[in-house]
Amino acid sequence: MTDTPGPVERMLARAAAHERRFGALLQEYFDTLGATLEAPAFSRYAPECVHLLRELSLRGGKRMRVVLLHEAAGLVSAEPAEGLDAAALSIELLHTHGLVHDDLIDDSPTRRGGPSTYYAYRDRFPHHPRAALGLTVLAGDLALGLSLRVLTEAPLPVALRQAMTEVVTRAAADTFVGQIADLERDFTATVPSEDVLHSVADFKSARYSVLAPLRLGLLAAGGQPAVFDEELRRYARLVGICGQMRDDYLDLFGDPDIMGKPVGTDIRDGRRSYTVGALLSVVSGTERALVESALGDPSCPPGTLAALREIGERQGVAAGARAEMRRHAEQASQVAAGWRTRWREDAVAFFEHLPLWSVERSG
């Protein structure tokens, strides 16, 4: 007798199918980009830049933005929706732009198990740091330009093409504002409030990683996202907060081999993240002195990070973070459950189960 897969197993199977299909689509896109991207005939740096973007983009990730936009279209109809491929390429190229600039801002050497674009350029130009810096910025800018070009050149009705381009443009602007607010947060004298941390997570992550795919998928399927904007925003904000909490948690308590990037970045960069803020809120005396001495120290040794992890576990920071992630995930699931009165059951179930899975997964 064959066991019937449960809702989470069905959700993961559908996500994997979307991921596989998009992987082939993205590879095809980069295979043909050289023939469509104009550059001076003498330029070697332009093709090298495209190659680095290709390597970073194809290196992996769970493609959850792509999954979300396909499932958002499925809320309206089970039939294939026009424009989903262009929307998927656009939102993932926007994500690539974000990764390139994030790694530059964070001075991160690795991403997805390989070198970050910034460190690839540093290796390429070891004696010209300004060139490495400039080319990294421009690589991220090129990814953003390609993200918008995919939509403006898509063979879609003018109204749909314009609406999708507006979604991505707005998401990009919100993300940039979020990045600015994220940096501003770390220059405050006090531990940031929960409202500040939530707002940063909303602007920096939720609006392009969750809200934009929801809007794009509904638009492609002929839906009207503006009618349900308040609900979509609430769901996206809660899921975005969960995701940022999880990222901050893993930066101190995670396994670098699983994540494909080093831990302790927030501590070394002096960032007042969810986890760092929670840690500062519970320590005192010699423990607080240790946290404050490590915070903002780029050479903070692994032994100190291990000590901070032990303090965080003992003081309940890790357990508290897991509980908060789950609480926000449950709230997001409740929002999605309310969509059953208007949208298709199987797609609603996907969005209902996604938040809890996203905070409880191991990888």
TrEMBL record:
Residues that span the membrane, as ranges: none
SUPFAM superfamilies: Terpenoid synthases
Keywords attached to this entry: Isoprene biosynthesis, Magnesium, Metal-binding, Transferase
Pfam families hit by this protein: polyprenyl_synt (PF00348)
Superkingdom of origin: Bacteria
Alphabetical list of InterPro entries matching this protein: Isoprenoid_synthase_dom_sf, Polyprenyl_synt, Polyprenyl_synt_CS
Residues of the signal peptide: none
Cofactor dependence: Mg(2+)
Keyword Iron: no
Similarity comment: family membership: Belongs to the FPP/GGPP synthase family.
Name by which UniProt lists this protein: Polyprenyl synthetase family protein
